[in-house]
Amino acid sequence: MSKLEGKVAVVTGASKGIGAAIAKALARDGAGVVVNYASSKAGADAVVEAITAAGGRAIAVQGDVSRAEQAEGLIEAAVRAFGRLDILVNNSGVYEFAAIEEVTEEHYRRLFDVNVLGVLLTTRAAAKHLGEGGSIVNISSAATLVNMPTTAAYTATKGALNAITGVLANELAPRRVRVNGVSPGLVVTEGTHTAGVIGSEMEAGLVAQTPLGRAGQPDDIAEVVAFLASDDARWVTGEDIAASGGVR
């Protein structure tokens, strides 16, 4: 039997990149998966199609996790479709580089609304449905380890997320719900291509700092999340795993 057979997962921001890889990995392991997207319906539909073509179960649900009613609606849609909820992967996130002289209120609020508030709102909505054996996985960033220039606001959001992971691990432990984080290093995705990172001097510099000597791939992160979501990680909570090729 697949290790997630009979379980149901919501993956936020799953229309592309790391989120899409996570959704496919969880479905491969037997979970019914809700593929959340904010704006890319075509991308989410493509992920669902790939999952169902491989024999898995998935639906796409639109929702901006930084808005309370939409975060709530996302979770309710999952429960309506599959009858339960066991796994929440808070993957939705935005990143935007800005030197300190360029930081604005809009920049700060956009990053914190999605990367921090979105996690709180979605987890609040999910918590009422998660019971013993439930797992929450928050996707953080190895940016918190390297203190890269021009990422002050972004790195701050991920530092906040790490704190949230620790607090909620303790808060939800009496209900036997585990909460963990994964901190990817540089990963080759549509987003890092669009941001101009891949193929740039920044990529070369980041790879040079990576002991394993390469950028990550979405599947490198997805397999760690699949482990944390499963009962294989039943004694693991409150941890942040750096899936970063050795970056410290």
From TrEMBL:
Keyword Oxidoreductase among record annotations: yes
Family matches, as Gene3D superfamilies: NAD(P)-binding Rossmann-like Domain (3.40.50.720)
EC number of the protein: 1.1.1.100
Keywords linked to the UniProt accession: Oxidoreductase
Protein family per UniProt: Belongs to the short-chain dehydrogenases/reductases (SDR) family.
Pfam families listed in its UniProt record: adh_short_C2
Domain called Ketoreductase: residue spans: 7-185
One example GO MF annotation: 3-oxoacyl-[acyl-carrier-protein] reductase (NADPH) activity
InterPro entries recorded: KR_dom, NAD(P)-bd_dom_sf, Sc_DH/Rdtase_CS, SDR_fam
Protein name (Swiss-Prot/TrEMBL): 3-oxoacyl-[acyl-carrier protein] reductase
Top-level taxon of origin: Bacteria
NCBIfam families linked: PRK07231.1
Keyword hit for Transmembrane helix: no
Entries under SMART domains matching the protein: PKS_KR
